[in-house]
Amino acid sequence: MLRHLMYKIKSTGPISVAEYMKEVLTNPAKGYYVHHDMLGEKGDFITSPEISQIFGELLGIWFVSEWMTSGKSTAFQLVELGPGRGTLAGDILRVFSQLGSVLKTCDISIHLVEVSQKLSEIQALTLTEEKLPLERDAESLVYMKGVTKSGIPISWYRDLKDVPKGYSFYLAHEFFDALPVHKFQKTPQGWREVLVDIDPQVSDKLRFVLAPCATPAEAFIQHDERRDHVEVCPDAGIIIQELSERIALAGGAALIADYGHDGTKTDTFRGFCGHQLHDVLIAPGTADLTADVDFSYLRRMAQGKVASLGPVEQRTFLKNMGIDVRLKVLLDKADEPSLKQQLLRGYDMLMNPQKMGERFNFFALLPHQRLHDASQERNARQSKIPTSSVAGFDELVWQ
Ligand code: SAH
């Protein structure tokens, strides 16, 4: 990867951080995500669904609750962006099975958007029935197809644009932070983009430089920007626009969970290797690269086509979804002390403000009508206590 990047820079000059990130993470031949299983204790980082089954279960309940509140459509697609090892989708599907009596008249299909060959294989192992062979076609937009263990059709795509546009619930957990960001520094001469160049002192080392003049990507910076360093993720903007158009047109909702901020942070680009911080320019391709999600940018990119909710902190969202009740049920059922310990440790990781409780946020996109209906319902009840408009963002109330 380092050789490839050096060659690129030598032939066309310094590259943007976004181009660097894209090459390092998703280059089809050598990208970090493409051939690696980086998740879990033995990998480079661990995510909430890998820590506790409760996380995915509560998200499953969120989708069922939204489906019920918005009129129990006869069919929906669950579309997950960047499904990792498939653990989250597996936990959600278990909830769908357990609520089979509620969902029995609904035609569900699963659609996974994944660029990683390696991870898509692991997802298939987690989610599909071994005895039923998968259909594969590397040339097709749907590069893999099968049936889940509970008998639901499941398909894999490389790009959200290729997923059918029907009524859908979209899910992205720790996906947006992996998308490439442009970085800019305010200078006395105006905004200058941060680029990656070869260090003239050490021939096989990379370094950051500032572009000598304005670059086209500068157009992404807001006119009234007050920070002196900003990161912008145009790919995230494109995906949010696509999601917003789809939801406005066909209905459904998107639930996005990630670490991030609401347009306040500056330099968040970093690397992780073996659960430790890693210099982003050293040994590219061996470590995860990530930048905090700017939720204010996502909200802006929805361009008013849909309503947005959040970001709310993970601990608030999960509490509203009933994490304490679910933990109690599982603790009562667990007979092994080690299992109880594991459940409690998982809960602490997800909820503790010093751990993931405050660092991670939930953000949702919903049709305008959905929030309009909720506020009318509230007025009709003339209640001073806010009733559940949207679960997670308010307390979950079963209808
Ligand atoms: N959601 C999972 C995994 C998060 S890791 C979890 O919470 O455990 C990021 C995931 O996004 C991986 O599956 C990675 O392969 C995928 N990914 C990264 N960039 C992508 C892109 N541009 N398009 C589609 N998938 C991508």
CA(first)-CA(last) distance: 53 Å
Shape: globular
Q: Report the uncertain regions.
A: 384-388
Instruction: Give the helix level as a range of percent.
Output: 25-40%
Separate helix tally: 13
Instruction: Give the names of the bound compounds.
Output: S-adenosyl-L-homocysteine
Rg, nearest Å: 22 Å
User: Percent of residues in beta strands?
Assistant: 15-25%
Query: Major sheet: size, sense and barrel closure?
Result: 10 strands, mixed
Estimated structural class: alpha/beta
Rounded average pLDDT: 93
Number of DSSP E strands:
18
EC number: 2.1.1.320
Subcellular location: Mitochondrion
InterPro entries: NDUFAF7, NDUFAF7_sf, SAM-dependent_MTases_sf
Enzyme class: transferase
Please characterize this protein's 3D structure.
This protein is an alpha/beta fold and 399 residues long. The protein contains 13 helices and 18 strands. It has helices at residues 2-12, 17-26, 48-51, 53-69, 87-98, 100-103, 117-127, 234-250, 295-301, 314-320, 323-333, 337-351, 368-381, and strands at 15-16, 75-81, 107-113, 135-136, 142-147, 153-157, 168-173, 182-187, 190-198, 206-210, 229-232, 252-261, 270-273, 276-278, 288-290, 293-294, 307-313, 360-366. Strands 2, 3, 4, 5, 6, 7, 12, 16, 17 and 18 form a ten-stranded mixed sheet that branches. The termini are far apart. The model is unreliable at 384-388 (pLDDT under 50). It binds S-adenosyl-L-homocysteine (SAH). The site of S-adenosyl-L-homocysteine (SAH) has 20 residues, from helix 2 and helix 3.
